[in-house]
Amino acid sequence: MNGESAVRMQNETGTDHEVKVRFQNVSKHYGDVEVVHDVSFDIREGDFVSLVGPSGCGKTTMMNMLAGFVKPNSGEVLLEGKPVEGPGPDRGVMFQEYGVFPWLTVEKNIRFGLDLAIKRHIPKDERRQITEKYMNLMRLSDFRNAWPKNLSGGMRQRLALARAYAANPHFLLMDEPFGALDAQTRSDMHELLHQILQAERKTALLITHSVDEAIYLSSRVIVISARPSRIVESIDIPFGFPRDKSLLDSREFIDLRIHLREQVMKQYAEQQALR
Amino acid sequence: MERLTEFGWRLLPFVVVIALWYGVRWSGLVDQGLLPPPHLVFADIWQRSVEGTFLIDIWMSVRRVLLGLLFGMLLAVPVGFLIGWDKRIRRFVDPLINFFRALPPIALIPLAIVYLGIGEVAKVAILFYAAFFSGVIVMYEGMSQTNPLFIRVSRTLGATDWEVFSKIIVPLTLPHVLTATRVALGVAWATLVASELVAAQNGIGAVIQNASAFFNLTTIYAGIITIGFFALMMDTILRWASRQFLDWQEREAQ
Ligand SMILES: Nc1ncnc2c1ncn2[C@@H]1O[C@H](COP(=O)(O)OP(=O)(O)OP(=O)(O)O)[C@@H](O)[C@H]1O
Ligand SMILES: [Mg+2]
């Protein structure tokens, strides 16, 4: 059964590039303020798409529409062809504010998604192993019994990531997931994310302010304008996977970075003028 | 040793107050007949406990307070929860609750006597009233500040409605229940004397009222101190329980 479907995956070359998510002329306003204006783009199976744009431009709002917490005023967000109805465990979300449960220890936070009814079919032992795995990957094992109030900002962020990964969603939606990390940890997290995506073939949407991070992690980078969000530019990143840090020093990487920075800076300046 | 020092610090303010009490008495600022000395008050408590019915009075009062608190909170928790949850319900009920809460319990005594008689029911009902209205406000003001982020997170992990309730909302509600209970307990003790005005048969409030009829200041003070003592003990127990259950909470003051 498993072998059969694996064969089919390999034979049909189209499967790998199937459109999974489609933003179709999506607009959103809060009261009189338009936040997203007529945005259209696709996310294909296995894509890693980054959104880069100035603060307050509407990136989180776009992610929330895919996560199922916000409905567009016009246009549609389609998930595997159907409009998004609400949140679901197929789309793991790492929120900008982390949302770590303060009343649960580190270990129980990571386990939370695994102990829900939808995951009860997984044997208890296996659930424990999965928890251990992500606790180790995020280097939280020494704090397994700690309360979140005693963790640093970076540790809380890693905890939120561990919890999202452990539930094994098909889509990973991450809202500035590495913002509170120091440069070294951040770089470690990039490698880790590469590893996980490589091993588990997930489809990802990342919101970030770092152009370098966006290029290094993504298969596509979308530059978002000052409010209301429009797509300024959508660039396919020409580097294959797996990637390693030597990429950061390559000519192509640096050219791409210079170009994208310029684009992003323009939008940041415009957003500044809005206030 | 550390615990002993801690205990000492807690006791110190009372020692200071008693010292001031003696000080005022000896300074001559107040007529000595109007301010019995502390040792006579404590002796009065002792004597009434050993020779009289004071222990029964204490027990009756404690029982009334606990019953009023129990029934009050049994209603305040679900009602406060619902009001806190729904903005529309809150807008409708908030003025009503503040109106009823503002009524002094003493004003309700005639009504309690007319409808409920002069037995235990009327007394407990007044305490229930006081506990409910103070508890429900704390409950819904706390609940209305519940961060929707945690519910969102649980939804993205696949939580069902029941799981959102049992795994997110209940743990978020517990701190408010404990705070509301503490507030309601304090208010119930503060209302005790009034509730025992219904008919001064027994209870600490009754002791105080009977003493006042004879202008027996020593016993009045004995009653007041006893009420304060038990209110403080119960509050300490609740605080201790909060600390056990709510270790995870960030403490604002510390
Ligand atoms: N629920 C809401 N009600 C009203 N306005 C909102 C709401 N959510 C977002 N906004 C407004 O919409 C705009 C875009 O918000 P959003 O959070 O999507 O920005 P962002 O691009 O994620 O910014 P940042 O990079 O700072 O996280 C902001 O001006 C914000 O104030
Ligand atoms: Mg945001």
Low-pLDDT windows of residues of chain B: none
Strand order of the largest sheet of chain A: 6-7-8-3-9-10
CATH architecture of chain B: Orthogonal Bundle
CATH architecture of the largest domain in chain A: 3-Layer(aba) Sandwich
Protein name (chain B): Binding-protein dependent transport system inner membrane protein
Subcellular location (chain B): Cell membrane
Membrane topology (chain B): Multi-pass membrane protein
Family (chain B): Belongs to the binding-protein-dependent transport system permease family.
SSE topology:
The complex is a heterodimer of chains A (275) and B (254).
Chain A: H1 2-11, E1 19-30, E2 33-44, E3 48-52, H2 59-67, E4 74-79, E5 82-83, E6 91-94, H3 106-111, H4 124-137, H5 153-166, E7 171-175, H6 183-200, E8 203-208, H7 211-217, E9 220-224, E10 231-236, H8 251-274
Parallel strand pairs in A: 3-8, 3-9, 6-7, 7-8
Antiparallel strand pairs in A: 1-2, 1-4, 4-5, 9-10
Helix pairs in contact in A: 4-5, 7-8
Chain B: H1 2-27, H2 38-51, H3 54-85, H4 87-102, H5 105-116, H6 120-143, H7 148-156, H8 161-195, H9 204-213, H10 217-245
Helix pairs in contact in B: 2-10, 3-4, 3-6, 3-8, 3-9, 4-6, 5-6, 6-8, 7-8, 8-9, 8-10, 9-10
Bound molecules: adenosine-5'-triphosphate (ATP) and magnesium ion.
Adenosine-5'-triphosphate binds at residues 30, 35, 55-61, 96 of chain A.
Question: What's this, in brief?
Answer:
Chain B: It is found in: Cell membrane. The complex is a heterodimer of chains A (275) and B (254). Chain A has 275 residues and is an alpha/beta fold.
